[in-house]
Please model this.
Amino acid sequence: QKIVGIVQSLSETSAFASKAAPIINTYGGYRVPSSFLNLLHWTGERTFTSLPSVLHAWFRELPKRLPAPANMEVPAPANQTAIKTSWTATPETELLDRAKQLIETGKRVLILTPWKTRLERFQTALPTSLCLHSEQNAGDYATTWQTFMRTPESCLISTRIGAWLMPFADYILIDEPENDDHKQDELAPRYDVRKMAAWMATTQGTPLEIFGITPALHVMSEPPTIQGDIRVFVRHPRGRSVIPSIQLDTLTALQEHEGPKTIIHPIRGLLARLTCRDCSWQATCPTCGYGVALDATGAVCRLCKKSVDVPPECPRCGNIDLGKSFPGIDRLKLAWETHGEGIDVSWRDLSNEQLDAPFAPHSFVLITLASLLGGVSEDIRRHERQCVALRRVAARVTAVDGVLALQGEEEEVTTWLSWLTTAGVQALFETERAARKLFRYPPSIRRIKLLLDLPPDQALAWKDRVAPHLPPTLRWDGPFRSPQGTPEQRKRTIWHLLAEPSVTEASLIELLTPFANEAKIDLDPSAFFK
Model:
């Protein structure tokens, strides 16, 4: 059969000459730069993925015929490359201004952003740019990257799926590097756009510029203070209003605001969980074991999306009231239609599609359950994620001269306000670094995640077999069961290998490569327990 390949090098002799088939024809005639092959090998090695699998993830489905790469020019590496980082309350504006400047000077620019919603907004601001994302069909996807390669003066905006095009860019611009959506954390190859870009800059000479709001925990840089109209409303049991999850004083401030109004409520549907009011029994999905929520159409599992029969009563105590849970956004909308006095309000949840959409000028933005910003997972990174998410929303509301209202407990709201200042973020990160050091988590120590499609007893036997082949300086932690994910992911067993920061990545790759066919290995996990 016909197989498309990349000629890496030419040799006069080969031990496989007798088995080699002749090359039928050149496919497209593209000549890739050496930096592309270097990036391919580097990605394959550190993600423990074969080169064909990496290429398949990058190219996806190739068309039957590629157009000729007319006048294709590969950028020459810079002699000296510095990674420029800008931590600012307006990263989106500064990135777009920089992109326009580079495009006007005839540069080929690659912009990498964590979300498709942001990609679409960037394209509106840069109308001559190209877009690349995972939802494109095979033909549009191939046409886009081919056009970018063939056009010296072009701009490509992409989610992480287009990171492999870095070798063809004159400049790489990364949007909000603090967000973990830059990491491919579920499917192989498990690559991180931020590390790929840093490697391209430091080893291949491609200029890299980063625009963000909040530095990562391991980055010793000063985050900007976000100054705006931020109001906090402390929860009080006697302060409830006719609208569920909205305090009476919050509701008054919302109604008195003369500009646009937006309510952000994290919980979808009618009810967060079907929970017995008497004994707190909670309905779970029979397929994956996740908690069951309530929508207008009935009970549904938020994890595997399957519909579930609503139990007529609690199987533990017989109570028929299963409404002991946070109300969902649909219930708030119904209450607003009755008691909202005809005031127009827009509604959003915490999904990227809704949260990343622009706010109207002079908006009043209320977050009903601000404690759920950054996700509900109670893990070592919860406060870090919450701080990043809060600062992101606050910066965007401030940029439109709006009001951000936060509801929470007294201790919470005081902490949230401190996170909007430079000193507050630094104090949080110092506390977080101390906790990570105490419990042996990055950045104080390196954790390598090994995912096994085995039950715990077999995973223990696997560890006993593998451990003698690794140095005693690598410590084991686990085994853990994945608490969330698809039904298949929940059956996994997770081991962590702990290494000192002084241990080189090359030595870890050499040690773990023999076991790559038995376990899914992630050198830089962003989620430790799934």
About this structure: The CA atoms of residues 20 and 241 lie 77 Å apart.
